[in-house]
Amino acid sequence: MQLPFCSAHASCFKVLHEFFSSAAAGLHYSLRSVEGYCELSVQQIPPPVPKQYYLRSHELTLSFSLLRAEKISDATISGLTDELIAGNSSLNLSCQASAGSISNRLWLKDGQSLSPSNRVTFTADNSSMNIKKVEKDDAGQYKCSLSNPISTATAERDVVVNYGPESVTVQGEKTVKINTKVVLQCSASSVPPAGFMWTFNETLTNVKTDTFIIEKANYNDSGNYTCVASNAVTGLKSTSVHTLVSNGGLSGGAIAAIVIVLLLVFAAVGAGIFTMKKKK
Questions:
Q1: According to DSSP H, which parts of 129-251 are helical?
Q2: What CATH number does the domain located at 73-159 have?
Q3: Could you give the CA distance from residue 154 to residue 147 in angstroms, rounded to a whole number?
Q4: Phi, psi (deg, nearest 5) at residue 39
Q5: C-beta contacts of 247-255 below 8 A and 24+ residues apart
Q6: Distances (CA, A) of 29 to 36, 60, 147, 249
Q7: Which residues have a Cβ under 8 Å from the Cβ of 172 and sit 6 or more positions away?
Q8: DSSP H helical segments within 138-213, as ranges?
Q9: Dist CA 133 CA 143 (whole Å)
Q10: Residues 260, 264, 268, CA angle at the centre, nearest 5°?
């Protein structure tokens, strides 16, 4: 500590040395001049040493306190027991050490200092923190830094916030030619990763992946393809609809209609020829 009321001249150093040699024997200390003042550094304070000191001489009056600090060890973060769901859960973390006196606690997230807000609160001694109704951006690495004059210790904890699915989209061609391959790709933002299933014209299909493939498209493949994304932890589902149109040829129904028309034409022609021969 710096003693601003004790200028760094020889008499000040002499008086302090005499004091520590007698009244505070057992202290491991050093004195040095820093910017015109006397700086006192105490490396070790044995248990019998009193905390409060008074020093008076004809040149100065000095009063200061010494606090015995123990090295901090085994810092840990506790409190995260259940899975966190965005919009529903609260995050509670506590930081402690197995040994040592703690003078200061600092909380960080992804390397940035955490500050109180309308959602983030701390206890008076900063030993615990709380985030109300976590959001997906609250996920990350939380770090607690403990310190005292002689030591520091840190603890880290990775926090996962489950959310989604959201932003579900289907990528793929909307118009395809008959007999060409069709690939529809579904994606969603979700933690954990979303599961997928597909419906075609509101009828459930057997496809249970993020990709729907049609090897050779025909007219019967035209319609609405719905990707259904789900999250097993949040229990939420979200959908996206993709409309596909197949063209460039005749459908099975159209071909059947043409065949029927041709048969009717041939039948009519045949009947006409038969009637003409009969009249002759």
A1: none
A2: 2.60.40.10
A3: 9
A4: -105, 130
A5: 247/175, 247/176, 247/177, 247/178, 248/177, 248/178, 249/177, 249/178, 249/179, 249/219, 250/219, 251/218, 251/219, 251/220, 252/218, 252/219, 252/220, 253/219, 254/219
A6: 19, 20, 20, 96
A7: 182, 183, 184, 185, 242, 244
A8: none
A9: 20
A10: 170
Domain extent listing, the chain: 2-65, 73-159, 163-252
Tens-level pLDDT at each residue, the chain (280 residues): 444 444 445 556 565 666 666 555 555 666 565 555 555 565 555 555 445 454 454 454 555 555 566 889 999 999 988 999 999 999 999 999 999 888 899 999 999 999 999 999 999 999 999 999 999 999 999 999 999 888 899 999 999 999 999 999 999 999 999 999 999 999 999 999 999 999 999 999 999 999 999 999 999 999 999 999 999 999 999 999 999 998 865 555 555 666 675 666 566 655 555 455 555 5
Matching residue, tokens 């009519």: 268
Which of 122-139 are b and which e, b meaning 16 or more Cβ less than 10 Å from the residue's Cβ?
Answer: eeeebbbbebeebebebb
Q: Considering only CA atoms, which of 168, 187, 186, 169 is closest in space to residue 237?
A: 168
Q: Which residue has the tokens 């299933």?
A: 197
Two structure tokens written together for 43 = 């490396």
User: CA-CA distance, 214 to 150, in Å (whole number)?
Assistant: 69
Amino acid at 120: V
Q: Is the pTM of this model over 0.90?
A: no
DSSP state of 136: G
CATH number for the region 163-252 comes to 2.60.40.10
